[in-house]
Design a protein that fits this description.
This protein has 311 residues and is an alpha+beta fold. The chain is built from ten helices and 14 strands.
């Protein structure tokens, strides 16, 4: 039987996700963190969580995250596919495929125009998504700024931690920057405040109470960076950086290295910005995939997804 989830399913959903995903186990996903995700992200709800029930157990699950994604000059209502998982004893029966097909059909009926997801290139799930009509549009890229380069950056004057009052200026900068990009998510003030300033959300449930948003402010917000500590000793991660000019970018990177006490920075940004920064760039075997639910997939000239918008 396939149905959507209810409040009473949350304990079993959390248990299933910890069984299926090592990252969730390592992070310590629990009911409180799951409910915090539901509270902080209006695009996530139990009515968009699809369950395949066998007896009294959740055998498989698929979540649909409601997003508006830009392609060309328009934003399209998009069903973001997340947390596709099957309990180990029920694998090999095609339950995930059936559940995905049901979720996609239901999303079409609910008015979604596109569906999108992120997958590990060449993994079993990637092959399934291709069979269901998803196309590869963007591979995750990043740059690394090493210690010798960090030492050459200017002193980080004019950079400080962001406050709620900065959200409007950050949003305006974001809206200017995404005009030339495809695949990016529509944000609003609440999104900036809840997910980027008050907490440091960096992927799905994962967040930290530590401050992670820096702004360059000379009377106007001319740039911001979203930062976090990396898994490796001495590594800092700049998961998003937007700026009006290169000087502002270098000030933000200098401040990022300082607050993180980093010996190197891993920088996620669109390809042209990585090139502008002059850093060595690398590609991860992770791909952003799209499927049209109505008509054909619109052309994407500069596809990208910001690190913090991943689901």
């Amino acid at each position: 039987m396939i149905r959507t989830a209810g409040e009473e399913d949350i304990p079993e959903i959390v248990k299933l996700m910890n069984e299926c995903f090592r990252t969730y186990r390592n992070w310590g996903l629990n009911e409180e963190k799951f409910r915090e995700w539901l509270r902080s992200d209006p695009g996530v709800n139990l009515d968009g969580t699809y369950l395949h029930i066998e007896g009294d157990k959740i055998a498989a699950m698929v979540q649909v995250v409601d997003r508006e994604i830009k392609v060309g000059r328009e934003f399209f209502r998009t069903a973001g596919i997340a947390n596709v998982c099957t309990r180990p004893e029920f694998r090999g029966r095609g339950l995930a495929r059936k559940l995905l097909e049901h979720a996609l059909a239901d999303s079409l009926e609910r008015g979604y125009e596109l569906s999108a997801l992120l997958a590990g290139y060449g993994e079993i799930a990637h092959a399934l998504y291709r069979k269901l009509g998803f196309s590869d549009v963007y591979f995750t890229r990043y740059g690394i700024m090493v210690q010798d380069e960090l030492k050459k950056l200017p002193e980080a004057e004019g950079v400080r931690y962001a406050t709620e009052e900065d959200a409007q200026g950050m949003l305006k900068l974001y809206e200017r920057r995404i005009r030339e990009l495809d695949g990016v998510v529509k944000r609003n003030l609440d999104y900036f405040i809840e997910k980027l300033i008050m907490k440091t959300f960096w992927h799905t449930f994962f967040y930290s109470e530590e401050k992670g948003a820096l702004v360059f402010d000379d009377g106007k917000i001319r740039g911001y960076a979203l930062v976090m500590r990396g898994a490796l000793p001495g590594q800092g991660i700049v998961r998003e950086i937007l700026f009006d000019d290169l000087e502002t970018a270098y000030l933000l990177l200098s401040a990022s290295a300082s607050v993180l006490r980093a010996k190197s920075l891993k920088i996620f940004a669109p390809e042209d910005e990585l090139e502008l920064l002059g850093v060595e760039t690398f590609k991860e075997p992770e791909v952003y995939m799209f499927k049209p639910l109505r008509g054909e997939l619109p052309p994407m000239e500069k596809p990208y997804i910001f690190y913090s918008d991943r689901w």
